[in-house]
Amino acid sequence: MLEGFSLNADTEGKEAQSLMNATERRELEMKNLQELADVDGLTGILNRRAFDERMATAMEADAAGPLSVVVMDIDHFKDLNDHYGHDLGDRVLRDFGKILKSKARPRIDHAGRIGGEEFALGLVGLNADAAQEIAETIRREAEDQLMFSGEEKIKITVSCGVVERREGEKLPALMKRGDETMYTAKRDEEDGTKGRNRVITAK
């Protein structure tokens, strides 16, 4: 009788373990699917929806602390794509995504591709001065990249707009200011200063 009881208990234990393993596998599969849904397939960083969701969550979690966003656009990307082809254009986007990802602190900051050649880096807990330094590093690294089409060397540059959250400001307003500041960086100035390949920080 004891042996029979032991056998039944052992069988039940294996069934419970098997059920637990199946549940864990399903949870892992769901997690992997969610991660795939959040990631831009070309660059490997967050897509626009996931970037907005995570930034909104970060802003709600700490409504008073410093938080900045760098909005970036690859200069002359359409011309580059048209002249050299989409394969090189995709390579430029992938390489820039790697630069951006390397500047995002894991589980703190959020790097995303928010448009065709437009990117954003959400810097949680950092003010505009700190964000500007990071933006300058990104700009320099992009400019230093070696990109070739056959024997021709191609220079890649980015324009960056830095904004720090204002008191009570929500994500849509913050991103709108970031976008406007980035486009200011792209424009030529009346004093003769050339636009593009620079960082502008909103006042």
UniProtKB/TrEMBL annotation:
Q: Which GO terms of the molecular function aspect are on file?
A: diguanylate cyclase activity
Q: Which InterPro entries match?
A: Diguanylate_Cyclase, GGDEF_dom, Nucleotide_cyclase, Rev_trsase/Diguanyl_cyclase
Basic and acidic residues biased stretches = 184-194
Please give the Pfam families that the UniProt record associates with this protein: GGDEF
Q: Which sequence ranges form a coiled-coil region, renumbered to this chain?
A: none
**GGDEF domain boundaries:** 65-203
Report the protein name in the record: GGDEF domain-containing protein
